[in-house]
Amino acid sequence: MYGKITGYHVDNNKVRIDYGRISATVEAITPAIINIFLPLSGSKKPSHAIEGEKGVPVDLAVKQEADELVITTDQLAIRVGADFKVDFHTRAGQVICRDYRGKREAFVRRGKTSLIGEEGHQVVAHIGGNRVEVLKELIGDEYFYGLGETTGHLNKRGYQYQMWNTDDPSPHTESHEKLYKSIPFLLTLRKKLAYGLFFDNSYHSFFNLGKENGGYFYYGAKDGNLNYYFIYGPSVQQVLAGYTYLTGTTPLPQLWALGYHQSRHSYDSWQRVQEVATAFREKKIPCDVLYLDIEYMDGYRIFTWDRERFADFSAGVAKLQAMGFKVVTIIDPGVKKEKGYPVYDEGLKNDYYIKDKDGIPYVNRVWPGEVVYPDFSNAKVREWWGQKHRLLTEQGVAGIWNDMNEPASFDGPIPDDVTFNNDGSPATHAEMHNVYGHLMAKATYNGLKTLTGKRPFVITRACYAGTQKYSTVWTGDNCSHWEHLRMAVPMLLNLGLSGISFCGTDVGGFSFDCNGELLARWVQLGAFFPLFRNHSNMYTRDQEPWAFGAEVEEICRQYINLRYTFLPYLYDLMWEGEKTGLPLMRPLFLSYQDDEETYELNDQFMVGDCLLVAPVLQQGQRCRAVYLPAGEWVDYWSGERHRGPGYVLKKTPLSVCPIYVKAGSILPNFPVRNYVGEREIAELILDLYPGEGSYTHYQDDGETFNYRAGEYNLYRFTQRLTGDKLVLDLEKTAAGYERSYQSFLLKVRGIAATAVNADGHEVAFAKEDGGIMFRIPGTTKRVEIRME
Ligand code: GLC
């Protein structure tokens, strides 16, 4: 295709490789991250996903071997050959990933598509044909993950997915190749070795993972450049660190954002919102956030509210605030096309909308009727948009929900040739479609940041790679179907493996009617989602925790309480994630990569390193098998100990979601509160599972960015068993935040003790649930528990 290498030139980290008519580049961003670039449609444009300079000095050696160029870093040997075929090897010579050189050929398909089409069957006979395409050999042992928000199972091998943000409310099934988000990042695990491929091309793209043919997989796009990053592990954790080094990590949210959220399309008056708020407090079901969906607006005009149903807006918000609630309002991108509507007029006057091929603001239809679309690819528009939120923040609104930002268009697809400003280098809709929601979330985040000074809470439906820097996400319009409860696990795990660690599905399901058993199981699972939000569609039956009778209400209360108990643990994980890129909700192989049994577990996951959750995902299921990897595990409910690796059977009456804790864990807990901030937490509970282990707990003000200037505390807890003693060391390793815990309440599981000693003083203890419980001052350095 491009022929043989005709020459090359090395410039620091970058090697230009000439092929007669075209020159490619191979650039070492770090010793483990390599950018592969071929200018198929012009020179490299700034990435929407990667911000700032990421290159570091790399020791690069380049030599020619026969027809190949061999480029080496400390970690990799990259062999580049004729036709710009690129292979990645370890320094020891092991092949990690190589381009496919065989014949391209689809699996045999027989018969007539016209005939089956007659009956309405969908015909899928897609083969390649993309302008940009990379074929990689299927060596045979690949498991594929990532790719953002996808239906189906954890492992993507054998399937095809498309990246083209799509608002498709039909019940999502395995045959949906595209949904609301485009995250062209593929994580491959080959037995013990992992690598990532980030295809930073925003056009409509395809990932075919052995569906076309068992000999290769490919990714390609309809247009743009061949531009991808190879990210070496060998651990999955290192691949994720590399990917989030490029595209950014999820910043630590405000603590309340990890609480329980209640939403509805739509609570349509202050009276109804107030009823819901009061019910939460009366029923003592914790809840931090209430949402106002589109009905709060005046005729679906963004940045307005209905003056009757939501009269005296700031007073309505203030009333909820006084009860401990945060209010999040929806803001869609479509601006109603209506002369005299200030937002529309302002945008028109300033030339802020995307335009059709004749240079006129492009019009389509969404909730308000005819709308125009702000051009978020223009820095001025992002700034304008961000500042528009002042109207809402001044009323006390605490967060913003960005929806319909694929962007949705009820009157058919937006034509490819609609134009965007793209910060001065004009681009078409074909190029900008997939980054529209990303740029909207970025504008919203930056606006909220300057307006409030606090860590912004933004939730978005559409995304591109890197959106994690600006927003949490939910997975759009799912259904109250058991199938969608089941799918939530691999979907969120793969989002986490695509950098989007702060994510959730609509708990209870959005479309169709939920039922009590389904809600109970979804709340049990949702208690471990990074984003825990119950939401449902207009005209479906009520779906609040109390809507299905006393038994289900009690189960919801129990698991929402559990969420609030685990809050400090979840917050610690988000803090860790900002540094490492690791998600909160993790597939088991993230921690147990050497154990192949974990590679295709679709129905259980880890929360951090300590908790293993095995939810019930089927109607009527009263018992389930749980895989426990190597080590000792404690049943959270019964205290029973199990040694992994192996399967255990757990009885699962409706009130039980199986949870296992790794022995040696020290879990920080908070007492249950109706909402974050209801009472100050002066005492941290330590739920301790005897064994060897240590844990770092993080504490800050829970809302500002002061932690970035060092205003936080770190506590390191280390436990070990020596003879008949369990010894716990407590250390404060950072002390930048003025408030500290005055005491610790220890709950030591599964031991019989004869004495407890803290820094040389005897401590009284109580026996509780097959273990012991006692309180020590916050300044304690060492605890020794003598066991029977
Ligand atoms: C879309 C959203 C849904 C929202 C509705 C009305 O369907 O996905 O969450 O409730 O629009 O705004």
Automatic annotation (TrEMBL):
- GO process terms (BP): carbohydrate metabolic process
Q: Does the keyword Mitochondrion apply?
A: no
- What InterPro entries does the entry give? DUF5110, Gal_mutarotase_sf_dom, GH, Glyco_hydro_31_AS, Glyco_hydro_31_C, Glyco_hydro_31_N_dom, Glyco_hydro_31_TIM, Glyco_hydro_b
Every Glycosyl hydrolase family 31 C-terminal domain range: 581-667
Instruction: Give all residue intervals belonging to the DUF5110 domain.
Output: 683-750
Q: Does the keyword Hydrolase apply?
A: yes
One Pfam annotation reads Glyco_hydro_31_2nd
Q: Which domain of life is it from?
A: Bacteria
User: CDD domains, from UniProt?
Assistant: GH31_glucosidase_II_MalA (cd06604), GH31_N (cd14752)
The UniProt family comment states: Belongs to the glycosyl hydrolase 31 family.
Q: Which GO terms describe its molecular function?
A: carbohydrate binding; hydrolase activity, hydrolyzing O-glycosyl compounds
List each coiled-coil range: none
What protein name applies here? Glycoside hydrolase family 31 protein
Origin species, per record, is Capillibacterium thermochitinicola
Residue ranges of every copy of the Glycoside hydrolase family 31 N-terminal domain listed in the record: 25-207
Task: Quote the PROSITE patterns the UniProt record gives.
Answer: GLYCOSYL_HYDROL_F31_1
The Glycoside hydrolase family 31 TIM barrel domain covers 250-573
Sorted UniProt keywords: Glycosidase, Hydrolase
